[in-house]
Amino acid sequence: MIKLANQLRGNVFLRYVAVSVCALATDMTVFLLVLETGMPATAASAFGYSVGIFAHWILSSRKVFHDRVSEKGTIARTQQKAMFLASALMGLVLTMIVVGAGTALGIDARIAKVVAITTSFLLTYLLRNVVIFRQASVQ
Predict the structure, then answer these.
(1) What are 30-53's pLDDT values in tens digits?
(2) d(CA 136, CA 138)
(3) Fewer CB in a 10 Å sphere around the end CB: N or C, the chain?
(4) Is the CB of residue 45 less than 8 Å from the CB of residue 116?
């Protein structure tokens, strides 16, 4: 059991999934809370996603890509943060498109959000693992 736990800890994708679940919990909690206030679904989705972005950077840089994050105070670290934000904004735009299109088609906003979560997750993981936190980024 300990050997399996250590193998899981060593798997970047599984750590990313775990961190994404935490960020998603933040996103969905905010989304559902502001949706209940009467905010339109697309705006509520964007707001929840934005709060989740911050949580995801903190967790990703410390728990997933900790061995590939550039040192604090360097230009490379600033570039990683900017690219992380850009990837998050790409995910946000994708999320807004999917939720907006889904609700326009009469799909419940919560179902549309689940579809958006899946597509955004795949896009941002690929960008972050392959581009933003590639091994060559470490200084």
Answers:
(1) 999 999 999 999 899 889 988 998
(2) 6
(3) N
(4) yes
